[in-house]
Amino acid sequence: MSQEHVGAMNELLAASEEVAAAAKELSREYVLAYELTDGPVDGATVYWQLRLSPEGTAFTLTPAPQADLWLRGDWRSALTSMANSRNGDSESDNSLTPEGDFESFMAAVGEQFAVARKVATIPATFPV
Q: pTM for the complete prediction?
């Protein structure tokens, strides 16, 4: 994700009444962090985070040391899997390894996550 892509998604999330309504159901902020190794710029590690809270949902491109859930893996493999999934390949290999309690995290944020995903998914060309 580029900063421009993140900015566009955050604008959609902030403007959505549906996201705001789902957010109010959360009791606290939850953070999902991605750590993707061997990124496109000199092999540097790429960080993404998704913050879901009663105030709303937002993406950033920074590390999140205190995340509730980490998804870690290789950048190229992760993006290939995401591109395959978006193209309807239900058998795409999810190469991300969760660290933390995935089931509890999704039980807490599942509705907001689903609404945010629907609202903020924008056309993208995956660089893989």
A: 0.86
